[in-house]
Amino acid sequence: MNTIDKVDITNNKILFLGYGAVAKCVWNYFDNYFNYDIKNIYIIDKSKETLYGPKLDIINKNNILIETVKSDNFDFIINKFNIKQNDIIIDLTFLSNTYYFISRCLLLGINYINTSIEDGNDEMLGSSIYIQQKTLANIYSDFKKNNTIKSNILTEFGQNPGLIQHYILFALNHLNKLYYKNDVDDYKIKSLIKAIDNYEIGIILSSEIDNLTTFNEKNSLDKHNKIFNTWSVAGLLGEGADKTELVYGKKNKYLKPPIPNSAIDFYKSSIISSQNKHCNILFLHETGMNCTLNSICPILDKNHNIKFVSFDGKLIHHGEIFELSKLFGNKAPFMSYVYKFNKYADKSIKKFIKNNNIKDDTDLELHINHNNDNFHVFDNINKHENDKLIGHDSIGCTIFCGNKKIKKIYWCGSILSNTDPNVDSNFTPTIIQVAAGVLTGLSFIMEKSNKNIGLINPCDIDTKYVFKKALPLLGKFFFTEIPVNLFDKKFKFKINKII
């Protein structure tokens, strides 16, 4: 792996909250990013069955605890492991009390990073990422009034949200360099907004295709009554079972995909949009898993050559669109995450819903969150070669330009394959892409020059720093123009009810 300037955290204790697929991968690559003391590594997870994987045996067994972390035992756990000011919490849990965790870390001066806000204790009961981000900002604002900032808090920094914001910033900066025919990087927000107008950018879709598969297709999943995924099943269902949120700036007059009025929950939309002067925020009636929109992005063919494919992706609401809408203001393009599920996830979800007579999203979440036997996350740890996942994950931003019709299409992102040199065979590309974000974000907040900044959003991090740290784990990272004739002439919003 290419040499990365390591951050020294030798004197800091590091506590992993949750030891699922992402945590295992982060820990696997930890040595490439940090100098640390092995005696200072701590792990807590709700399930003993999750505690396996590379390098786990070098951690002191007394530093590992089986417990579900909630607001009522968070302080007990902090005290048990003697986590104090300047120490680190890497929160990779699901459906946890994020607001409380962050409030305590602010007060105690503990550095904290997560990949998503998981708390439901807000006015929308955790169903709106826009409200979650606003709630967290209010918690931080109230704290600052009477307290000194003694740590860094970085939220929603994995692959997407997290790195994907910087793919978009990189792309807009690159478009400006093409437009003005120079090679000067300029990441000032005013300059990036100019690119939106110069190129008539009406739509930016975070486009992802999970193209991982297995050698052994005969090892059929059909006989199993459970849901499979290449990353957290609970995480996939948690965001996929939420009602879709979309956003666009009130003064962005360029091309938009047609979302029919019948699909829009105008009551919820009006409540949220009334809180935002610059952007319209749309709530749809349907969950993300039930809604699709077509996009286009590059993938790898059988010979590992780049090819462009159009696809229908699930409209999952994601944190990146709301942070970017704040940056771009009333010029924000229409933004959404458009995700083509891994084929095993897609097939097993539909089969599980049918077999268990599941009626709605709440019923589905109950089945998954209260019975570990109902799901399985693929990894390659201790697997026979024929049972390992192979293939690639393509994740990036697809940028559609034009006023009345599509004039130009651009894409910027990462295609990571299991054959890329820095891919440890124990882990899938999808998981490594997320880990790249966590390791990059943690590096930034632990740099001595960045001490005690306080609450940090993904776009607050310098984009050049992000790529310096993340690129070794992103495989093929590139910017490209996609020929317009390869995409369908029209956007097609569809509702395909799964639940």
Describe this protein with a few key phrases:
499 residues, alpha/beta, Rossmann fold, Dihydrodipicolinate Reductase, domain 2, 2 domains, 8-stranded mixed β-sheet, 7-stranded parallel β-sheet, 13 helices
Account of the 3D structure:
α4 (129-146) links the parallel β7 (111-114) and β8. This protein has 2 domains: 7-154, Rossmann fold, CATH 3.40.50; 163-428 and 471-495, homospermidine synthase like (Dihydrodipicolinate Reductase, domain 2). It has 13 helices and 21 strands. 47% of the residues are buried. It has helices at residues 21-28, 74-80, 98-108, 129-146, 163-180, 189-198, 233-240, 266-273, 319-328, 343-355, 361-369, 429-446, 463-470; strands spanning 7-8, 14-17, 34-35, 41-45, 64-66, 88-91, 111-114, 152-154, 201-214, 227-229, 243-249, 279-287, 291-300, 306-316, 334-340, 375-377, 389-401, 408-417, 454-456, 476-482, 493-495. The longest helix is centred in the first third of the chain and has 18 residues, at 129-146. α1 (21-28) crosses α12, α7 (233-240) packs antiparallel against α11 and α12 (429-446) packs across α13 (463-470).
